[in-house]
Design goal:
Blueprint: H1 3-29, E1 39-44, E2 47-52, E3 57-59, E4 64-67, H2 74-79, H3 89-104, E5 108-112, H4 121-124, H5 127-139, E6 141-145, E7 160-162, E8 165-167, E9 170-172, E10 184-186, E11 191-197, E12 200-205, E13 207-209, E14 213-215, E15 226-227, H6 231-237, E16 242-247, E17 250-255
Parallel strand pairs: 4-5, 5-6, 6-7, 9-10, 10-14, 11-15
Antiparallel strand pairs: 1-2, 2-3, 3-4, 8-9, 11-12, 13-14, 13-16, 16-17
């Protein structure tokens, strides 16, 4: 490699590192996006979409809201096994979801799997949560995509059920298929970006995107997360994926290291 070419490569690498560092500082200075107002337009597979700071995706052309991994009644599932958690996760998740439906005026809702934590989750919903959910499913075109946690649920409090769907060329399913060549939206992995900035560890739910894959973060109030560089996420998306974090009116992009 010539000296000039080596210098150019070093400069490009230094600029890339600088941009990532500046984005990291911006992310560290923001409040947690769970209740943020970030609505950042971006393009995926030729479609104009909007990434929401709460971890949902809005599709303006269809007035569609897409969410993944709600995990309703996860706390009560643990309670049945002796691990007591505050029993408000479904109510909190539904409150956030209702607020987004109102804010976006969405008329079409797609839940990308693991909407309930287990096959009996719908039966355990508190009366308030059940009423809220039935109101939402009755007032919108609501579709439940089945996931590994809730594949066998029969009563989902209204709405339609599908194993997967294809909508205007986009495949909607729960878990990304590494062999799928069509553009695909999915959930399942609960991706989170973890960074250390000036000695402070920050963690944010995030989207993960590659040329034909877009993985949504978990929307549920009581959900963990998988690091974006986890081998299973890399296997699902391929080598050129990046983590996307909507902040205010900006989309922060972080290449996922091998």
């Amino acid at each position: 490699m010539s000296a000039a070419l080596y210098a150019d490569c070093c400069a490009a690498q230094e600029e890339s590192h600088r941009q990532i560092f500046m984005a990291s500082r911006t992310l560290a200075s923001t409040t947690h996006p769970r209740h943020g107002k970030a609505m950042v337009p971006f393009s995926f597979a030729g479609h104009a979409l909007v990434a929401l700071g709460e971890g949902a995706l809005f599709w303006p052309a269809r007035r569609a809201l897409l969410v993944a991994d709600l995990h309703f009644e996860k706390a009560s599932w643990f309670a049945r096994r002796g691990q007591m958690l505050p029993p408000y996760d479904s109510i909190a998740t539904l409150a956030d979801l209702t607020a987004l439906v109102t804010a976006t005026s969405a008329t079409e809702i797609w839940c990308l799997g693991d909407s309930f934590h287990d096959i009996d989750g719908c039966d355990r919903l508190p009366a308030q949560a059940r009423h809220t959910l039935r109101t939402l499913t009755a007032s919108t075109h609501w579709t439940w995509i089945t996931g590994n946690h809730d594949r066998a649920i029969l009563d989902r409090c209204g709405g339609k059920v599908a194993d997967e769907a294809v909508v205007e060329g986009l495949v909607l399913r729960h878990e990304a298929d590494p062999d799928e060549t069509r553009p695909e939206l999915s959930g399942h992995f609960h991706p989170k970006l973890r960074l250390r900035v000036r000695g402070k560890l920050i963690s944010r739910r995030c989207f993960v995107a590659s040329a034909n894959k877009l993985i949504l973060p978990a929307f549920g109030a009581l959900t963990g997360g998988l690091d974006v560089d986890h081998p299973e996420i890399r296997r699902a998306t391929g080598p050129d994926a990046e983590a996307l974090v909507p902040v205010d009116k900006r989309m922060l992009r972080f290449p996922i290291a091998a």
